[in-house]
From TrEMBL:
It comes from the Eukaryota. This is NELFB factor. GO terms for biological process: negative regulation of transcription elongation by RNA polymerase II. It comes from Atrichornis clamosus. The gene is Nelfb. Residues 560-583 are annotated as: Disordered. InterPro entries: COBRA1 (IPR010405). One of its GO terms (cellular component) is NELF complex.
Length: 583
């Protein structure tokens, strides 16, 4: 076929006979057998000792092809070893000269499956494959596919579009993996989105593949960062910021100084990475991070765009917010005001830099966002007053009954708190983390008091996937409260259901929560919820799928009518055995 002809085309250039030559010889000869013998002698393996060995192999029925193939395989292995050795020996210019000559000789055979590995091996060891050869490889899908990543890098660095095609599916996969974790059906306060350590996350498939594709190539690294910035701008998806930090730290783990030393964020990211690992910014590291921020020189402000993207990574925000809540509690104990704590002010500074990432990269105005004085003088003291309220209530509960005042838990929220959550991004972020904190402490009173403030928040942050993922996890700690109609009404009717119809993701998170806790929910409430959460025509597949799972579970939990009537009213009903749903 034409494929065959093309495959062996290179042999003639090298003066090696091929099938075509044999055909020609046989067509123009009088004694075919003699001609074949002569062709074999001229083109066979030129070893005198073989003259006698081959007929012996013939007697054993070993086909000549099999013999030649095994000799060929041996030689190819030796050649591959030799090429790898040449790549390491002698003076740099000389070894590359040898390899270039070898490439020149062998490239015409690159289509022969048996020779291709050798040609590929030679190219892999050349730091600069001649432009002409790269073009030929690029033009041929199969050759391009067969290339070593070392060769592909040389092709990619001058072909951003081609590199983009290779990277794009990986970025899609990365975002999908993140979303799958946020919507996972396993809900727990022990294991959540932020549980894996940075080191573990960097072992992920996508980060590893990108690291491998980039190698030590600064140009490719820059291209990937450019893709990430563009996608972050286009989608506002913060997971791209995580990948930006993970990629840099993955190259850091491999000690690729060629790249780490030229990325101006390297040391900052490395220090922040250690904080993320501990889920806390300690004083020593706080000083270090502050040093980097204060050290941004005139004329280099553009680095703030990169630093803001590193700080916009949800893992960074999570660490900064948790540290802020811890600092506020300490301040209550020390009777200190927020504005008197430099550590707290630094955390706020980094939070606003991270939260301002999108605006900064979008506007290309590289200066730190101004901190609103009110945040420090009014909002944080308000949060501290909540901590005090909790403390007072707890202490009071523990007093002997005769000393107890007629104290009830404060149920109203200061209007200022609600207003801050609606109008100030940083206040909102910290407020949400405070609510996660009290939920984790199983503080039902505080939770129900602050919950109404979540219905309207700055750019709907209380309905974002990360917050709802964490909230649903922490709510499992209050699972016994779900038996109370009042608690369910506040949580579902007062919060979740206000957004379900306009926000598909909220619908999904409520269904996740119920799949996990349905057996704890007051039965009348459960029935009402099942009606309220029914998917509409507009609902996506994920919602329908979750709703069906929930319906099946509830079906299994219903006692059959017979069992209900037979239970004497005095005795406690036995736990009902789930009956297979009648089909």
């Amino acid at each position: 076929g034409p494929g065959q002809a093309e495959m062996y085309a290179g042999l003639q250039e090298l003066g090696v006979a091929n099938g075509e030559d044999l055909k020609e010889t046989l067509t123009n000869c009088t004694e075919p057998l003699k001609a074949i013998e002569q062709f074999q002698t001229e083109n066979g393996v030129l070893l005198p000792s073989l003259q006698y060995a081959l007929p012996f192999l013939d007697l054993h029925g070993t086909p000549r092809l099999e013999f030649h193939q095994s000799v060929f395989d041996e030689l190819r292995e030796k050649l591959l070893e030799r090429v790898s050795a040449i790549a390491l020996e002698g003076k740099v210019e000389e070894r590359y000269k040898k390899l270039e000559d070898l490439l020149e000789k062998s490239f015409s055979l690159v289509k022969m499956p048996s020779i291709q590995p050798v040609v590929m091996c030679v190219m892999k060891h050349l730091p600069k494959v001649p432009e002409k050869k790269l073009k030929l490889v690029m033009a041929d899908k199969d050759l391009y596919k067969a290339c070593a990543v070392e060769v592909k890098r040389q092709i990619w660095q001058d072909n951003q579009a081609l590199f983009g095609d290779e990277v794009s599916p990986l970025l899609k996969q990365y975002i999908l993996e993140k979303e799958n974790i946020l919507f996972s059906n396993d809900i727990s306060f022990l294991q959540n989105f932020f549980s894996p350590s940075p080191k573990t996350r960097r072992q992920g498939e996508v980060v590893q593949k990108l690291t491998q594709m980039i190698g030590k190539n600064v140009k490719l690294y820059d291209m990937v960062l450019q893709f990430l910035r563009t996608l972050f701008l286009r989608t506002r998806n913060v997971h791209y910021c995580t990948l930006r930090a993970e990629l840099l730290m993955s190259l850091h783990d491999l000690e690729i100084s060629e790249i780490c030393t030229v990325d101006p964020c390297h040391k900052f990211t490395w220090c922040l990475d250690a904080c993320i690992r501990e889920k806390f910014v300690d004083n020593k590291r706080a000083r270090e991070l502050q040093g980097f921020l204060d050290g941004v020189k005139k004329g280099q402000e553009q680095v703030l765009g990169d630093l803001s993207m590193i700080l916009c990574d949800p893992f960074a925000i999570n660490t900064l917010a948790l540290s802020t809540i811890r600092h506020l509690q300490d301040l209550v104990g020390q009777d200190t005001l927020p504005r008197e704590s430099p550590d707290l002010l630094l955390l706020l500074r980094m939070l606003s830099l991270g939260q301002g990432a999108w605006d900064m990269i979008d506007s290309q105005v590289f200066k730190e966002p101004k901190m609103e004085a009110e945040l420090i003088t009014r909002f944080l003291p308000l949060l501290m007053s909540f901590v005090v309220d909790d403390h007072t209530f707890t202490v009071d509960q523990k007093l002997p009954s005769e000393e107890k005042g007629p104290i009830s838990y404060p149920s109203t929220i200061p209007e200022a708190f609600t207003k801050f959550l609606q109008e100030n991004r940083i206040a909102c972020e910290i407020g949400l983390y405070y609510i996660l904190h009290i939920t984790k402490q199983r503080n039902k009173n505080a939770f129900l008091r602050l919950l109404p403030a979540l219905v309207e928040t700055f750019s709907d942050l209380a309905f974002s996937d990360i917050f709802l993922h964490l909230l649903t996890g922490n709510l499992t700690l209050l699972s016994d409260e779900f038996a109370l109609e009042e608690f369910c009404t506040s949580l579902f009717d007062g919060f979740f259901l206000t957004a379900c119809s306009r926000k598909e993701n909220v619908h999904r998170h409520v269904l996740r929560l119920l799949l996990h806790l349905h057996h704890k929910v007051a039965p009348t409430k459960l029935e009402a919820l099942q009606k309220a959460l029914e998917p509409t025509k507009q609902s996506g597949e994920a919602v329908k799928e979750l709703y069906n799972q929930l319906s099946e579970k509830l079906e299994l939990c219903k006692p059959s009518p017979a069992e209900v009537t037979e239970t004497p009213s005095m005795e406690l009903p036995l736990p009902t055995v789930p009956t297979p749903a009648s089909r």
